[in-house]
From TrEMBL:
This is Ribokinase. Pfam families: PfkB. Its cofactor is Mg(2+). InterPro entries: Carboh/pur_kinase_PfkB_CS, PfkB_dom, Ribo/fructo_kinase, Ribokinase, Ribokinase-like. Pathway: Carbohydrate metabolism; D-ribose degradation; D-ribose 5-phosphate from beta-D-ribopyranose: step 2/2. The active site is at 283 (proton acceptor). It is found in: Cytoplasm; Nucleus. It comes from Candida tenuis (strain ATCC 10573 / BCRC 21748 / CBS 615 / JCM 9827 / NBRC 10315 / NRRL Y-1498 / VKM Y-70). K(+) binds at residues 277, 279, 313, 316, 318, 322. It catalyses: D-ribose + ATP = D-ribose 5-phosphate + ADP + H(+). Activated by a monovalent cation that binds near, but not in, the active site. The most likely occupant of the site in vivo is potassium. Ion binding induces a conformational change that may alter substrate affinity. Keywords: ATP-binding, Carbohydrate metabolism, Cytoplasm, Kinase, Magnesium, Metal-binding, Nucleotide-binding, Nucleus, Potassium, Transferase. Substrate binds at residues 12-14, 40-44, 149, 283. Requires a divalent cation, most likely magnesium in vivo, as an electrophilic catalyst to aid phosphoryl group transfer. It is the chelate of the metal and the nucleotide that is the actual substrate.
Amino acid sequence: MSKSITIIGSLNYDLVTYTDKVPEGGETMQANSFENHLGGKGLNEAIAVARLSSKQSTIPVRMIGNIGNDTFGKELKQALVEAGVDTQFIKTIDGVSSGVATILVESQSGENRILITPGANGELKPSYENYETYFPNKNQEGFVILQNEYPNTAESIEWIKTHRSKLNIAWNPSPFKPDLIKSEILSRIDMLIVNEGEALDVAKHLLSSEEIVAFDESIKQDKVKGFGELASKLTKLINPANINLVIITMGGQGSLFSTKNEEPTFEKSVKVTSVVDTTGAGDTFFGGVVVKLASGFSTRDAVKFATKASGIVIQKKGAVESIPLLEDIN
């Protein structure tokens, strides 16, 4: 059975300002520089998957999303085409702007703060007929990558798991939406990837107050051990039938992963000389993991590979521009 990797999500044009300090309310400051970059979690993930795939790969990479009938939209779609992503399901919406992300980057630390204007992404609400067109094969295998930068994440999860159960749903619940953190939704996904804060937010919505207190205390005593225990707990809450994988990313420390067949495992981050911009690092990590898993690699090898890829991203400016090619990793 042929496999595919399909990304459903956002395409944004990033407007990036670099500054020594983020201003407080009512404060005006002079920034260091301003740049335009292509982005959006969906676009970043799609391009990461395409660039990190082997040239000999027979697994097609497809993007489902919306753009506006504007210059930003044309650039966003062209970037996907150049990366080798199938864009037949990228829809142009008249009368609506393409999505825009306003990003503030602190020059010294590389930490970012992001404001998103959905634009055409807010109109991405596939119908039952749309999903049938996207996934015509009832026995389709592979991965569907999802995030929360479009309105119908829950509906996508419901349709795919009901009608195409062999597909692995890989979900990063970012930006965090509390109304989506429900046991019935989590039980239908196959791979959950979250950072430390998101992991705790998910736990607070699904676990008892006693369990939360216990995890908080464990994390204070030993961060890696505590988050490892939390990853193991979350693994039991997602769909056990397919890949069953939870990954918690821990910034400069590294990441943890847990499956139904593996104890929590910690992977150290790659040491770099300087952090320039963390934008797109998480999306690249996500894409790198999925590429390797879809190609039959072990979870540990997939995480190691993704760690190297994201380590390259943080040393350059921009999201799409900094995503490496497979040969850069090798």
